[in-house]
Amino acid sequence: MFLWDWSRKRRHGRAGIALLGAGIGAIGGLAFAAIMLYALTLDGATFSVNEDEMGGFFVLIARALGPTGFLFALSIPAFAALAAFVADRIWGVQEGVYHALLSQGARVPAAKPPTTWKDHAPRLTLLCGFGLLVIWVLYMAWWEINRGSL
């Protein structure tokens, strides 16, 4: 199943997968910045950038964009770069396994192999666990924001 699945996914290439990861990371960075902005401005509060604690280049960006723009300008590219790096590393590992299997004589199936529920159970378990983790993190962030701790 791995050989058939990866032979389809690898058509996008290393750069395509890195771009997909960067896009997903950028969405995560946007969500992070939006949550932080909400937390920082809750109940009519304002926030500012402490220029005494920043380097010269960051001070120029903060002055040009303001605190809100600075928050978004830092978080979105940082999350995008991290996700692109992770996607590239995962692609490299998967590609290495693919070539190792081919070099050992395995063949890519012409059609999708039949699968059972047991084949999908690990993926479904992982997705459910990740979904529960996301729900828990969002609830805890909401709780901390409303308590005024975040």
Q: Can you give a write-up of this model?
A:
The chain has 150 residues and is an all-alpha fold. The chain contains 4 helices and no strands. It has helices at residues 2-9, 13-40, 56-103, 117-147. Helix 1 crosses helix 3 (56-103) and helix 2 packs across helix 3. The longest helix has 48 residues, at 56-103.
Topology:
Layout lengths: L1 H8 L3 H28 L15 H48 L13 H31 L3
Helix pairs in contact: 1-3, 2-3
Cα-atom Rg, whole angstroms? 22 Å
Low-confidence segments: none
Number of strands: 0
Assess the beta-strand content as a share of residues: under 5%
Question: Can you give the mean pLDDT?
Answer: 89
Number of helices: 4
Distance between the termini: 45 Å
Bin the helical content: over 70%
Largest sheet: none
Order of helices and strands: HHHH
What characteristics describe this protein?
150 residues; mainly alpha
Structure in a nutshell:
The chain has 150 residues and is mainly alpha-helical. It has helices at 2-9, 13-40, 56-103, 117-147.
